[in-house]
Amino acid sequence: MDRVLESSSSEKLRRKAADVLGRFDDRRAVNLLLRVLERDDSEKILRDAGESLSRINLDSARTALERLAEKASSEATAALRRIADEDPNERVRKEAVEALLELPDGLGTEFVIEIARTHPDASLRRIAIKALGDCDDPRAQRALIEIVRGQR
C-alpha cells in the first residue's frame, strides 16, 4: 500500500489507497496517511487522506488537519474548506474550522467568517462563531460584532 501511495502516478489509485487505509485502526495506516499529507500535493488526495484519518481516530484527524494547515497551499486550504463544509462528523468539521483559523497570514479566516454568517447548518455556524471568538484576527472580531448585531 505504501508503494502505491508514494510512487504511483495514478491519482485515482492513490485516492483509493488513502480511502482503504481509513478502514484500518492501525498505527501503520496512520503513519502512511500522515506521510501522504506531507508529500502529496493533490487536493483530492489530501482530502481523502484527512477523511481517512478522521475515521481512524480523532487524534489522528487533528494531526492530519494540522498538517494540512501547515502546508498553507491552495490545495490544503481547499481540502480544509471541503472537510469543514461537508464531513459528516461534526467533531471533524470543528477541527477543520479551527485548523482554517491557524493557517498562516489568516488565509482561512474569511471562509470561517462566511461559515459563521451564512452556512445552512446551524451547528456548524455555532462552531465557527465560537472559533472566531477564540481568534485574535481583527476581521474575526469585527465579524462577530456584526453577527451579534444581526448584520451578517
Structure in a nutshell:
This protein is mostly helical and 152 residues long. 76% of the residues lie in helices and 0% in strands.
Beta fraction: under 5%
Topology pattern, helix = H, strand = E: HHHHHHHHHH
Termini separation comes to 47 Å
Structural class: mainly alpha
The structural domain count equals: 1
Largest sheet: none
> What portion of residues is helical?
over 70%
The CATH first-level class comes to: Mainly Alpha
**Shape category:** elongated
Number of alpha- plus pi-helical segments: 10
**Unreliable spans:** none
- CATH architecture group name: Alpha Horseshoe
Cα Rg: 16 Å
Average of pLDDT? 81
Count of distinct strands: 0
CATH topology: Leucine-rich Repeat Variant
Notes on the protein architecture:
By secondary structure, the protein is mainly alpha-helical. It has one domain: Leucine-rich Repeat Variant, CATH 1.25.10. It is built from 10 helices and no strands. It has helices spanning 2-7, 11-21, 27-39, 43-56, 58-71, 74-86, 90-101, 109-118, 122-133, 138-148. The termini are far apart. The model has no long low-confidence stretch (mean pLDDT 81).
